[in-house]
Amino acid sequence: MTEPEFLTTTRTAYDTVAHDYADALRDHLAESPADRAVLGLFAELVDGRVADVGCGPGRISGHLRGLGVDVFGVDLSPEMVAVARRDHPGIGFEVGSMLDLDLPDASLGGALAWYSLIHVPWDLHPVVFAEFHRVLAPGGLLLLAFQVGDEVRRIEHAYGHDIEADAYRLDPDKLLGQLADAGFEPHTRVEREAADPKWEKTPQGYLLVRKAGQPSHA
After folding, report:
1. Mean pLDDT across the chain, nearest whole number?
2. Which of 50, 64, 65, 176 could cysteine-pair with 110, CB 3.0–4.6 Å?
């Protein structure tokens, strides 16, 4: 089966920029109290194994591990996975796609897509959310981070390299509707204005939702 074109272009783009991306964002969390606060809330609430889907060089996985979360990473880009394994040797990282996660049903307590859903076309969100719903146990948490908006941005140069990739600004209300259709219940919604013009051109959004149903230990 031929994979969707956006997967091929996104993989190639992140393979190209992997090492420079990791260097550029290595200390970014230290300068973003809002990001740390959202991740801290997720870490405090989640119970069980967590998948960082679209983990890139593993910086969010590493932060969550430092907060005591049993986390592992999945990324489309083999080069990103190689960097993540180099920088965070105590965490497991594998190549994979959020469209088809190689994980058993109801096997996770939590999952997050930290600025990784932004490369998925809107019409494929139901496929992604169905996969997250499948792998999460009842009561499991899903955290999304994204740029707020409704347009598509074509990226042709990033981190010192010429690339081709599309990045979608996302509407929180529309996302919540899609997530509800997939069987998720809202928990926390945060939006903030762009804080650093070097990295952010639009407001930033965070959605924390819960798979309907009671945890098995409840």
Report:
1. 92
2. 50
